[in-house]
């Protein structure tokens, strides 16, 4: 990896004080007590001497002077720059990386912070610590002196990421919502075709609050060739709910943890080049889902996908999945089969369009779990920004049908049918990033109608999420 910024900070010596520094400089010949000379150096002189020692290859003297400078002022970044280079020349990689990190901590200017982060990234890369190198390249983005150096740092990051056997994608979001539990809009449970009126519990009705979500998708590459790669995968998702004061008053026996969930899985994927313009991937995984703090179900899953270009501006993706779920309760097992179709198109204007269709079939001896589902959506993203933000708009609809369904001992005539409509508008603030992570503000609404009124729901959510720009 090429370090983006060459050379030392131009203002390295500006922060040095005028306190005198004394050091003993021994003569070239045999040491004798009466010939040892004592030289008094100011801090700027000591800095200049240390830098000259580095240029002449005397890393030991440079490190000795820099350590003395640190003792004189431990919060001055200048000596740490010198120590980083000196320890690198001496072969002590750990101390070199540590010195670069301290140079970044105490740097007073954006230029010095950028340089320190770049040095730390280069030292980590040379030591094949690719994840640490990626971390420091991210830290160098915000203080980059200009757009050219920032883009160079991003290109360096992508090159290191390609070499790193480890990869991870992180997403965080916080979402205030008027329906955190997918509750019904009405306290009454009505079933079409039956002259029966039931009352829903407070927990089955819509409750407001805040949902915090974190998702980690990590992988380790165990094999790679020119046309394929194999990875071990790990994914964990947690969704934590906090009820509003009004929701707590409406449902005093419930807390947000009753609606919180966790998902974790381990797996193996193999991806390979398929044809001249596409790729394919196959994977298997095992995992567990928790809900309300208790195990919900264990699962085993297999996936197969194929993606290929349709012309210079279009791409079509096809995917199929199968999942076996074994519930923690006495509920019969379920088998889920899925087919997904996705098409992306980029226009010459810079606008982008994405549309998709998902078909699902759940097989189960429990009639309330056995169903068919279909979801379709379209997303449009204009190239023109709205102020500092990119806009994307999504519209979609879904239908889920149950051939047979029961509410307690009552069978629903003709089974159950749910129809949903959803829409979302998202603003992506790419220019307001920190270490390459940028916020997205999303307003989403969803409404579901059903012949069982327990599933007549409405939800409006405003979420703020953080995701990497690259």
UniProtKB/TrEMBL annotation:
Pfam families: SlipAM (PF04575). The keyword Lipoprotein applies. Coiled coil: none annotated. Residues 277-470 form the Surface lipoprotein assembly modifier C-terminal domain. Keywords: Lipoprotein. InterPro entries: Slam_C, TPR-like_helical_dom_sf. This is Surface lipoprotein assembly modifier.
